[in-house]
């Protein structure tokens, strides 16, 4: 029973090493993850801006995104080390420090990148200006991304609550991603091109406003748990943290190794789904790019229901590992069927209420193509959401495992090591897309709304939209065979950490 002498934070401690929070704080903290994904969305449509205003050819524009993600990966270990060396003796814990630094850097630099560059005189000044502030932008992105890894560790370690982290976070991110796809499509139609400067000015304003609100809510939600008691094994003698710990973690933490393989292959597939690939698939092959926004919203809502049931039921009862395995097999099967549908049925008959199909005909009923693709998209999308949404709580488990193994809570280092190797591999996604387009004759300009259909465009779009995702899911299945953080193992881990805290 709580006494007057107990610290206020003890109300979150439930015994046996378990601590949790009211669900509203989990919901609120997901605003940080939503903000990360919104700012990532800016980079996903960056290629058209680079091609149109910074003066880069298609391959160079695609390669620029790759180079910047490599830079992002390089900054990860440095920022992670700094964050874990930060002593939580001030008013700002590690998580809130990352939220503040990341939020400010991203807001200011994204404004300069997408609202000032196109107003500068044409010539060398544009690429130089854009590159300088993009480098700083990615440092901010690293801080904001780390806030999720650090915050998820101290927010809750309750095995019944950690799946909620992924469910709530994914719901917010997916709905926002669907809405932003609708915004992108609407703005492209409004301005007549993906290269219009006004499109980027308006898109930035929407992203910056929503992301800032999300960061503020996340800050408020994490505040009472962002203290040393929930992020250290000892509040007296903190273990010495060295940069060499990175090598020890990478070579001895097997669960982290498996998570790196899983995430890197999935992210490679995800980063290949650029705005250009989506435009080709829906704007050229299906014949109505505006329809892509409505399609994404329709399929996302049902997919989220599947994900919630999958992560909630499987993750909470059978463990996160089992949820990842089930989701990966579902992606393999559904994506393979989707590929066959695009090749052997008529994509231009894709139709939804309120939208014309690729032949310019108003909606008059669901076509066979629409029904078939809808079914595999919502089912496959649900499985894919399971595999992606289960990552945050699994990384939180990996952090706890590392603390039980070494006595060091280093979520910044573990999280950034994970994201560093993830980014080193996935960074090549946009460049691969550029190579794919260059191979079929689009070396100078990306395909746009007025580009005529060709079978080569269909092949490139399907390979990058579905093919790499199938390969990533296969790697997931293999890596999970060697991931041993089962529910029973995690009970041992939390008990050991609790023993350390009790002694110290």
Care to give the gist of this entry?
By secondary structure, this protein is mainly alpha-helical.
What distance lies between the first and last C-alpha atoms, to the nearest angstrom?
22 Å
State Rg.
23 Å
Let me know the CATH homologous superfamily: MFS general substrate transporter like domains
Strand content bin:
under 5%
- Spans of at least 5 consecutive residues whose pLDDT stays below 50 are none
> How many distinct folded domains?
1
What are the secondary-structure elements, in order, as H or E?
EEHHHHHHHHHHHHHHHHHH
Top-tier CATH class: Mainly Alpha
CA-based shape: globular
Mean pLDDT reading: 84
Characterise this structure.
The mean pLDDT is 84. This protein has one domain: Growth Hormone, Chain: A. Helix content is 73%, strand content 1%. Helix 1 runs parallel beside helix 6 (162-191) and helix 9 runs antiparallel to helix 14. With 504 residues, the chain is mainly alpha-helical. The protein has helices at residues 23-44, 46-54, 58-85, 94-115, 125-155, 162-191, 197-222, 245-252, 254-271, 275-285, 290-318, 320-344, 368-389, 391-406, 411-426, 428-439, 455-480, 487-503, and strands at residues 13-15, 18-19. The longest helix is centred in the first third of the chain and has 31 residues, at 125-155. The chain has 18 helices and two strands. The protein has a two-stranded antiparallel ribbon with strand order 1-2. The two termini are 22 Å apart.
